[in-house]
Amino acid sequence: MKDKDPSFDGHSNKRDGDGVKEAEFSPIRGLVVEVVKKDDGGGFSTPQMDKMGNTDNLTCSQFLENPEVLATAIKITDKAVLESYKKEKNRGKKVMETVEVCEEDDDHRKRGKRDQKIPVYGKSHFVERIVRMSDKVKKDEMSLYNSVFASKRDYGEEIWNIGSGHVLHQGFAYHFKSNTFIHAIIIDCWSSLLNRMEELRDVGSFSRVFFDTNFLAEEILGVSLSPERTQELFDSILKLHLKSLAKQKKLKDIGLDFFPIVDRRKYYLICFDLRVPTYFIIDHVTRNGSVEEIYGIKHIHVKKLLGNYLKTKYYQKSTAFHKIKASVMKMTWKVEKEGSDCGVYLMRHMESYMGENEGRWDCGFTRKKQTDLLALNNLRIKYMARLMKSEYKKHKSMLEKDAEAYERLDPLHILAIMNEVKEIREKQKHGRRRF
Fold first, then answer.
1. 223: in domain
2. Before 277, cis peptide (omega within 30)?
3. Which Gene3D superfamilies does its entry note (predicted)?
4. Which residue, 65, 87, 112, sits at the end of a domain?
C-alpha cells in the first residue's frame, strides 16, 4: 500500500499523469477545488454547468457564488468583525479610564490637594546632591582648583553664570583659598546652584528654597521705611525670587526656607520649617547670651514679614507661625570662636540640612580640630569644583579646558606660571590702590 500524502483532513492530492488537470484544496474544510490547467499557461477553463450540483467540481469563484456558501461566509465575517470590534472597544475603554484618572488627579491638584509624600529626607537615588566629606579630593577637582588660580584672566572677567542673576568673576575665586573669608557673592551663587539642584530631588521628599544674602539688606529691614512700605517691598522681592526658580512654586508648599546671613564676619543661617511651623538659627560658633543679644532683631523682623506674606497666600498654619520663637540649633561640631572658615561652614549647613530633628542632623564634621581643618580645606576645593563644573553654567567648557591644559604641564612649568601670575596680581592690586 502506498502512503498517502498529508493534506487538510487527511485528503490526498490527485494528479493526472499527463499533467493537464490538478486538484487543489481550499483552506475551508472539505472543499476541493478542481481546475483545468492549459499547456500555454493561460487561466482557468470554464467549468461544466452540468456539474454545478457537485461542489467538488466547482472552481473557487463558482463555489463562492453559491448562495448558501455566500451566506455562511458573510456570517463568519460578521462574527470576526464583531469580535474585533469588542476587543477594540474594551481597549478603548481602558484608555479612557486611564485618561479619566489622570484628569481627576489634575482636578485634585487644581483644588489644592497635596500628593501623598514618602518620608524620605531629600535624597535622590540618581544624583549625589550632597558633597561627601569622607571622599578624597579627585584629580580633576584639584586640577580645576589650581588652574583657576594659575589663570592670567583679569579680575573682572566672568567665570560663573547660570542665569540666576548672580555672576562670579575671576577675582572672587581667590576667596576659595585656605585661610580666606568666603565673600557674600559666593554664598549667593551657592544659593542659586542649590535652588537649581532642587529639581533633582527625590519625588518623595519635601522641597527647599534658598534666598540670597541681599534679601535681608538694610534697604528692606531699615527703620526709615514705614511698616506698610517695608511689607510691600518684601513681598515684591519674594515673588520675584520665587518666579526666578526653574520650577515655580508657592511658598506655602515649600518645606524649608533658608536665609543666609553675612553680618560683620558673622555667618549664620535662618531656617524656617513651614511643615511644623518653627524656625532655627544655625550657627557653627558657640556664643553666650540670649538670641536677641547675639543676633539682634533681624530674624524677628523676617519672621513677621514672612508670616504676613503667608497669611495672604492662605497658609493654613499662619496663626501658629506668628507665635513661634527662634531657637539656636544645638550641634556637636560647634567651635569656640569664629574664623576664616565661617563661610565654608555656612555653605555646608545650607547644602546638608534636610529638615532632621534637632540632635539627629550630622553634616560630617567631627569636632576634632585637625580632622575638621582638613575637611574644610577639602570642601573649599570640592565646592569650587561643584560651582565651576555645574551643568547649568555657561563657562563650564572654558574652565574644563583650562584644567586639562594644567594637567599636561610639568612641575617646573607650573611653578613658573604661578610666579608670573603672582606678579600680575601684585601689579593689579597696586593699580587698584591708586583710584
1. yes
2. yes
3. Adenoviral Proteinase, Chain A
4. 65
Residues recorded for the chain: 435
249 and 369 fall within a common domain: yes
Q: Residue 30's pLDDT is what? A: 39
Residue 73: inside a domain, yes or no? no
Rounded Cα distance, 197 and 175, in Å:
23
Other residues' Cβ atoms within 10 Å of the Cβ of residue 384: 23
In a domain, 134, yes or no: no
pLDDT in tens, 72-106: 666 666 666 566 656 655 655 454 444 444 444 44
Amino acid at 64: L
Q: How confident is the model at residue 70, as a pLDDT? A: 60
Count Cα neighbours of 224 within 13 Å in the Cβ-side half-sphere. Answer: 5
- The pairing of beta strand 167-169 with beta strand 208-210: unpaired
Distance CA 74, CA 77 (A): 5
The answer to whether the CB of 215 falls within 8 A of the CB of 184 is: no
Asked whether 257 and 209 are in contact (CB, 8 A), the reply is yes
Query: Does residue 84 sit within a domain?
Result: no
pLDDT at site 215? 80
Q: Please state, in angstroms and rounded to a whole number, the distance separating the CA atoms of residues 202 and 36.
A: 76
| Domain count within the chain | 2
For residue 90, the model assigns a pLDDT of 61
Last residue of a domain, one of 65, 83, 113: 65
Dump pLDDT digits (tens) for 302-347. 999 999 999 998 888 988 999 999 999 999 999 999 999 999 999 9
**40 and 147 inside one domain:** no
Within 10 angstroms of residue 241's Cβ, the number of other Cβ atoms is: 19
Say what the pLDDT of residue 222 is. Answer: 61
Looking at beta carbons, which pairs linking 370-376 to residues 24 or more positions away fall under 8 Å?
372/333, 375/133, 376/341, 376/344, 376/345
Find the domain containing 345 and state its range. Answer: 139-433
Q: Are residues 146 and 27 in the same domain?
A: no
Residue among 9, 21, 105, 90 nearest 59 (CA): 21
- C-alpha cell of 68? 448558501
Helix (H, G, I), strand (E, B) or coil at 139: helix
Q: Are 299 and 225 in contact (CB under 8 A)?
A: no
Q: Are residues 257 and 396 in the same domain?
A: yes
- Give the residues of the chain that fall short of pLDDT 50: 1-53, 93, 95-126, 433-435
As to burial, measured by CB atoms within 10 angstroms (0-12 exposed, 13-18 middle, 19+ buried), residue 341 is buried
State residue 308's pLDDT score.
Answer: 92
Domain with 275 in it: what CATH number?
A: 3.40.395.10
